[in-house]
Design a protein that fits this description.
By secondary structure, this protein is an alpha+beta fold. It has helices spanning 27-42, 84-104, 109-112, 128-138, 144-160, 222-231, 245-260, 280-290; strands at residues 2-3, 7-12, 16-21, 50-54, 64-68, 73-74, 168-170, 179-184, 193-199, 206-208. It has a five-stranded antiparallel sheet with strand order 1-2-3-5-4, with helices on one face.
């Protein structure tokens, strides 16, 4: 048995996976996954097929799900994040993920109707980042000069963003532990290729601004993912997204969520998610901009 945050997981031979919620609080996410996975697969997204979803509670006291098992291991289990040859391999995976997301984001409420348990996530209003900064200043988490600088940064990003965006179906947790890969032409750390074999864990799916999808990915992987997204026909330059507005909107999410974590800086030891350490997002932003990122990113700092 393997244990995730929300589910207990059993491998049923080489081809199937059984997932059972750990608590009643996790049932809603499983119900949501049962609604979303068939829709994502119908859109052509690479995710394991749903075999059975039973919410009768006759076999166990909670609903359960059986999925096809995708080959490979999750990307979080590989070492050398963003560095050297391993970093190049990971960038290739993120480019593949971007192409998959371009397919997913063609799914709209108008096209498929309501999906059980899938919420609508609204953008914060234009003043929300300023209120966040002001609150951190009042709480003593920022000094006045840092607060002034951050307000200016948010203002410059806002100038790039020309309005809202249509809501689409988003996975909601595109992070390394939810990306399955297989190595090729070698093994382990000596692999010469990494191939995406599946996107898993749809418990955070929602109707949202498609740019939010890129905020759970480490920032160093986002340029490659956006490249793949554009290759797949996503990130149209028509409408509200033009002239690097995608990059600005994604960066605004990363920066806002990094600062919001300062209000709740408790560590989560043992959690595999890359954002579990309280300073992870802030350090990720620092590392990204200190590494001479490509245009247009370098012009957004």
């Amino acid at each position: 048995m393997e244990s995730g945050v929300a589910n207990r997981v059993w491998l049923l031979g080489p081809d199937l996976v059984l997932r059972v919620p750990r608590t009643e609080a996790s049932v809603a996410d499983l119900v949501k996954e049962a609604a979303v996975i068939p829709v994502a697969r119908a859109a052509g997204v690479l995710t394991p097929a749903l075999v059975t979803f039973d919410d009768s509670r006759t076999d166990v006291d909670v609903p359960y799900m059986v999925l096809e098992r995708a080959p490979g291991v999750d990307l979080a289990g590989r070492h050398g994040i963003g560095a050297g040859a391993e970093g190049v391999l990971r960038e290739g995976v993120f480019r593949e993920v971007g192409r998959e997301l371009a397919r997913l984001h063609r799914v709209t409420p108008a096209g498929v109707g309501e999906l059980a348990g899938v919420p609508v996530e609204y953008d914060p209003d234009a003043g929300a980042p300023h209120r966040l900064v002001d609150g951190l200043l009042a709480d003593g988490m920022l000094d006045a000069e840092a607060a002034r600088w951050l307000r200016g940064w948010f203002d410059r990003l806002a100038e790039r963003i020309a309005g809202g965006a249509s809501r689409v179906l988003v996975h909601g947790d595109i992070a390394p532990q939810n990306l399955l890969v297989t190595p090729g032409a070698g093994s382990g750390s000596h692999a010469r290729t990494l191939t995406l074999t599946g996107i898993v864990d749809w418990g955070d799916a929602m109707w949202a601004d498609p740019a939010v999808e890129f905020a759970k990915t480490p920032l160093w992987g986002v340029p490659a993912m956006l490249d793949g997204y554009r290759e797949g026909g996503g990130a149209s330059e028509d409408g509200p997204y033009d002239s690097y507005a995608w990059e600005a909107r994604v960066l605004r999410y990363h920066l806002t969520w990094a600062l919001a974590r300062l209000k709740n800086p408790a560590p989560v030891p043992g959690e595999r998610h890359w954002t579990a350490p309280p300073a992870a997002r802030l350090l990720g932003i620092l590392r990204f901009f200190a590494s001479s990122p490509p245009e247009p990113w370098s012009g957004l700092a």
